[in-house]
Amino acid sequence: MNRKAASVIAASAALTLGLTGCSSGGGGTDGPEEDPASVEGTLRVLTPSFPTNNEGQAAFEQVVEEFQKTYPNMEVEPDFATYQNLNEKMSTSIASGGGYDVLVSGVGWTAPFADRGVFMDLEEFGITPEEPGEVSEELLQAGVFEEAVYAYPLVVDARAIAYRKSAFIEAGLDPDDPPETFEELKAAAEALTQRDAAGNITRPGFDFNTTPGNYRQAFVIFLSSTGVDLYDGDEPNFNSEEGIEALQFMADMIGNVQEFGQQNAAQTALVLSDEAPMGFVQSSIDCEIVIECDDLAFFLPDNGRPAEMIGGDLSSVGANTDYPDAAWAFIQAMMSVENQDRIALMNNKIPASNEVPQDAASLSNPLAEFTFENLDNGIYEGGPANWLEVRSIFGPTIDEVLLGQTSAEDALERIESEALSG
Amino acid sequence: MTATRADSPIRQRTTAPRKEKHHSKGSILRHQKRAGWWFIMPALVHSVIFTIIPVIAVFVLAFTDYSFGGRTDFVGFDNFVELMGDNSFRAAFVNTIIFAIVVVPVAMVIALLVAIGLNQRIRGLSFFRTAYYVPTVTASVAVGVVWLWIFNPGSGLANEVLSFFGLGRASWLVDPDLALPSLMIIGIWQGIGAKMIIYLAALQGVPTQLIEAATIDGANKWTVFWNVTWPALGPAQFFVLITSIVSTFQVFDLIYITTKGGPGTATNVLVFDIYNNAFQNLQLGYASAETIIMMLLIGAFILIGRRLQGANTND
After folding, report:
1. Residue A305's closest CA among A249, A367, A385, A246?
2. Phi then psi for B141, rounded to 5 degrees?
3. B259: which chain A residues are within 8 Å (Cβ-Cβ)?
4. What pLDDT does residue A5 have?
């Protein structure tokens, strides 16, 4: 390598590492002793919670209005992300050294980004695992990493199983006694499955309501329903007897009661459009759209512990922010009863705060009532700092099991090995 | 002796104008060079900022464990060694090669046939030329969404067509054996328009005198095509081949919209795997190593393409 080339590479390395270096450090220009009314500047907010339509923009403006009651001289610059491009935006903001003041992300994001120093420990604002503020201690666990709170639940996305009572009656099943265990669920799904003369499934008995590569969440639910969590601290728990049982159960269901990856063109839950008699649903339903809403009932899988998978939007303060107090004030503005209800309603989720009344619009449907009542049975995915990496291995590897390309034992062994190598 | 030569009036008379002429030519050349630099400056600045620096950064990052935060260490060839044992990378590597080997030649053949057809005097010529070019100018997101519906196992058009002919339904994008071929169909369909336009332009540039001369000499249509038209298409063929190889190796948006690399790793391709490693798994160093391998692979394919076409370095 000649000297010129070496110089160019060295300069590039310096530039690259310089960019990296820019991502650390920072300091506050507002503080507890400063009058919020005198703070000037721009608060940068990254959030997937507000759809980029008129309704979403209006809802965001309401939050800004609430925030500016306390910080009248601060501007708010939103970056409306989706969960598909959230990682890109967060990672590139770290690389550029810019960063956001407020970041709204999902459950799986907390540990990886807290570990990278992107999120601020919320203890500065009086939030600890023992002092959860206006959300329950159980719910706050989604934002905890290494015994500190880095993300505060805003709205919750909870998964339950819905079934159609009329279909149960038609199949000779008791609609008041829904299946809960693996055996019961499989037997009911088989009884509900309809086939043509050639044996092809024409109406699935159970809808996993997911796309190829995303069966991971169903696995986490079924695993947790055995009483075993995905992780015990940083230690993987899934490569266990219970894990194999849960994954094998899913493999037995695929091709038997539903074809792999089956979805309708709109990619909505088949049970809601009456294209399946039973299946996974999320958080909340709009009974003006759902076919015969009264025909629906809900339950949680229970092989020793009822398991309601909790996801949703969690708010964090950027570690590099110059306005930590303003950032927290903005999060509190989003957490106001009216704003939280509005955000939940727009996203078909449920509010995280205990202060939102049961008769709030976002809770006024049968599924939201059910999932809200069962938040205590909440289970989460994720845990260690390398979760995003492990998560990307989970999807395709579980697909392989469901497609009969590998065994549940081998698949979980492989994922565990990857989880431990990180 | 030297002084005598320098002082010679003859010498002075002959050399002075020559010096002035030489100076003037050099000055013009310098001005031209400077003007040239000014003209290429915007493109050069753009290339340096958005191409050269990122490429150099990729080569540097490939030997580090950079992951958007935390400490960054130099790891030598560890990323490359790890890639060799990475199932996802191996699947992406193989899928990308299969995708390119099928899509590039098939799309080129179809595009050439379409171009030959559209080079004839037929009714609705403008309509057909536009229709074949529309997929090229349509946003990949829209294309992906439409094909998602076409390939939907329950209510998609593809299965309705199969049913019409009494054939069984297929799972298209969710069947690991069919997913990649399904995407190849989309890739071929999407790539025909751009290739067709280039072929059409090349076909219209084939000298009519040569075709007429060959026809007068008694050559049939096939002989005329093979001995006159085909050689004249050489430069266009080469251009189409290179751009096709590069674009098929860089297929991303189609995968992102339709299958996300699944089921399993059945449709995982290199660019999608690089994206996943960089922005989903936050391993930019690892993704950079993968990028270098992809660059080498594209280079190898272009080299093979050149050899197969017998191209010389002036092409």
Report:
1. A246
2. -60, -45
3. 212-213
4. 42
d(Cα A127, Cα A130) in Å, to the nearest integer?
8
CB A328, CB A334: distance < 8 Å? no
The series of mean pLDDT values per 10 residues for chain A, 422 residues long, is 43 44 44 79 94 91 95 94 86 80 92 90 93 87 92 93 96 96 97 90 94 93 96 90 97 94 85 95 85 92 95 93 95 95 92 88 88 90 86 91 94 92 71
B241 lies in some domain: yes
| Domain CATH code at residue B186 | 1.10.3720.10
C-alpha A412/C-alpha A418 separation (Å) is: 10
Q: Which residues contact B201 (CB under 8 A, 6 or more apart)?
A: B236
For the beta carbon of residue A183, count every other beta carbon within 10 angstroms: 11
Considering only the beta carbons, identify the residue of A87, A94, A403 that sits closest to B264: A403
Q: What is the DSSP string of A71-125?
A: -TTEEEEEEE--TTTHHHHHHHHHHHT---SEEEE-GGGHHHHHHTT-BPPGGGG
Instruction: Identify the pLDDT of residue A207.
Output: 97
Sorted by where each starts, the structural domains of chain A and their CATH numbers stand as 29-157+311-377 (3.40.190.10), 159-309+384-421 (3.40.190.10)
For residue range B229-239, what is the model confidence (pLDDT) as tens digits?
999 998 899 99
Q: Hey, is the C-beta of B155 within 8 angstroms of any chain A C-beta? A: yes
CA angle A305, A111, A268 (to 5 degrees): 60
Within a domain: B220: yes
Domain that holds residue B208: 89-309
Which of B176, B259, B260 is facing A403, going by the closest CB pair?
A: B176
Within a domain: B305: yes
Number of domain units in chain B: 1
Provide CB contacts within 8 A for B285, sequence distance 6+: B61, B62, B63, B64, B65, B66, B67, B72, B75, B79
The verdict on B163 touching A (C-beta cutoff 8 Å) is no
Among A77, A93, A112, smallest CA distance to A23 is for A93
A17 and chain B in contact, CB less than 8 A? yes
User: CB A91 to CB B279 under 8 A?
Assistant: yes
Let me know if residue B4 belongs to a domain: no
Strands A74-80, A41-47: parallel, antiparallel or unpaired by DSSP?
parallel
Q: Which DSSP state fits A376? A: G
| Cβ-defined contact of A392 to B66 (cutoff 8 Å) | no
